[in-house]
Amino acid sequence: MESGEEDRQEAEGGLRKIIHVDMDAFFASVEQRDDPSLKGLPVAVGGSEARGVVAAASYEARRFGVRSAMPGAQAARLCPQLVFRRPRFEVYRGISRQIRAIFHDYTPLVEPMALDEAYLDVTRDRLGLGNATHIATLIRERIFKETGLTASAGVSYNKFLAKLASDQNKPNGLCVIRPGEGVPFVESLPLRRFHGVGPRGAERMAALGLQTGADLRACSIDFLRENFGSQADYLYRAARAIDLRPVRAHRQRKSIGGERTFARDISTGPGLREVLGDIIAMVWADIEKSGVRGRTVTLKLRLSDFTLRSHARTLDRAVEERDFAAIARELLDDMLPLPQPARLMGLILSGLELASAPSADAKSEAAPSGQMSLF
């Protein structure tokens, strides 16, 4: 770590004890738990061999390259023995509530990111245990005992590192990154592991000779701003393991959406409607996973000349799945015919609110400690 960087983190935001808990292949693991005949088999939740997209894949399926947001037909080609299961989101939400109740036994500072993952600030934990690694171990043990499911956890002094750590030893693993270990850990990682760096971003970085966190850390902020624009400041801090964001018990996402860039521009209504069906399934799976509802549906199309067209519709109540699909299709019909072919389609739900209210005790907050002697 560059001289004084860790001290500046402590001075500006206070070193914290952060745990990131991430359930292992959550939807697929629930299906395997509830149907023992699926144990050891490649399972995809959502999609089918004919249409739709995969919402989640078991680890057995992932070995064949099956991933979430992948078209079901593609997943079936990669893994002919793949077993498809319809999502049971009410079941997943119920289990997620069980798991969050466990979190709140240890801290009021719980920031859910989706049904299957959350950040916890245990700098001052409710039971006075004082050791973040011990708390993470207890939480994982309780999750398994009470739900029969496994979870992975990352423990560190900020959210960025904790999330990286939770993915390090999956499935059913624990990784701890202590103060002083953050920068060496980040330097060793491929840039694709950084949150927010997708496949195309990684390709662009590789074209610039950037492969690892160490390569990124060697770049000046001016170089990053020239090549990565608004993402530059985040990349500069991430390469130095700096993240001052607190855990927010009432963090509220503004929107949930997804988009697809076509391999070839599409000009026909039937072609666009077929793609829209896949995007509807993909985005609704993310909505269910996030445990929120919204009131505004927006469809956007980027045309072949890169101009952007969008239409939106707002209801006076929460949009349910049937509304979401119907409104999206109506918005597309309203935009047809297009003056020129489309190269990208995106679908967004906004005006979000929690599907269920947070527990009352989540409103209190604990101030971060300046020391992490018991990590």
Automatic annotation (TrEMBL):
Key words, A-Z: Cytoplasm, DNA damage, DNA repair, DNA replication, DNA-binding, DNA-directed DNA polymerase, Magnesium, Metal-binding, Mutator protein, Nucleotidyltransferase, Transferase
The UmuC domain, residue ranges: 18-198
Site (Substrate discrimination): F27
Active site annotation, chain numbering: E117
Biological process annotations from GO: DNA repair; DNA-templated DNA replication; error-prone translesion synthesis; SOS response
Catalytic activity of the protein: DNA(n) + a 2'-deoxyribonucleoside 5'-triphosphate = DNA(n+1) + diphosphate
GO CC list: cytosol
Cofactor(s) required, per the database record: Mg(2+)
MF (Gene Ontology): damaged DNA binding; DNA-directed DNA polymerase activity; magnesium ion binding
Recorded superkingdom: Bacteria
Cofactor, free-text remark: Binds 2 magnesium ions per subunit.
Subcellular location: Cytoplasm
InterPro entries documented for this protein: DNA/RNA_pol_sf, DNA_pol_Y-fam_lit_finger_sf, DNA_pol_Y-fam_little_finger, DNA_polymerase-Y, DNApol_IV, Rev_trsase/Diguanyl_cyclase, UmuC
EC nos: 2.7.7.7
Binding site for Mg(2+): D22, D116
Pfam families, per database record: IMS (PF00817), IMS_C (PF11799)
Classification via PROSITE patterns: UMUC
Function field: Poorly processive, error-prone DNA polymerase involved in untargeted mutagenesis. Copies undamaged DNA at stalled replication forks, which arise in vivo from mismatched or misaligned primer ends. These misaligned primers can be extended by PolIV. Exhibits no 3'-5' exonuclease (proofreading) activity. May be involved in translesional synthesis, in conjunction with the beta clamp from PolIII.
Homology family: Belongs to the DNA polymerase type-Y family.
Assembly with partners or alone: Monomer.
Name this protein carries in UniProt: DNA polymerase IV
UniProt organism field: Novosphingobium umbonatum
UniProt gene name: dinB
